[in-house]
Give the backbone structure.
Amino acid sequence: MSSASIAVTLAGPPDRPALMRVLAEMGAYYDELLGHTRLNAAAEALTAPVNRAGPFCLIARAGDEPAGLVSLAGFFPARDFTWGLMLRDIFVTEAHRGTRAARALMRGAMRFAATGGYSRVEWSVAEENLRARAFYAKLGAAPLPRLSYRFEDEALAEAAQGRWPVPEEET
């Protein structure tokens, strides 16, 4: 299958069943067990952007078959106090890997940013994900010298109450 047969479009409400299929495979890939209710809520969120911040979702199709997705979220400020886009996830279904669907999704994301007036697209990848890193290098993207940080679940709840893992007097 060639990249010419991969169509990438902005996902809307009619795309929710197809998105749910891709999201279910994506969840299984990442060992996340997601029920119908969670998948439906995710598909709904990805197809109902609130404003310029999104979220936005582009879906790739090979004919009538969903081939993958890329999810994007706007952020402000970016360079010169402009809007930027954060590429949150890109996923290609197993049946469509090697078909240039990922390249089509990346091109779609860049086109979405350029035509939408966003000044940049940023994304992160796990250091150990060598396949993704090689793919991004083939696109000409170079890694940034940054670290990412995260609070989630219990740590997030604790931090929200001002209860940090390291006492204040030590920081």
Observations:
- The beta strands are 6-10, 56-62, 65-75, 84-92, 121-123.
- The longest strand covers residues 65-75.
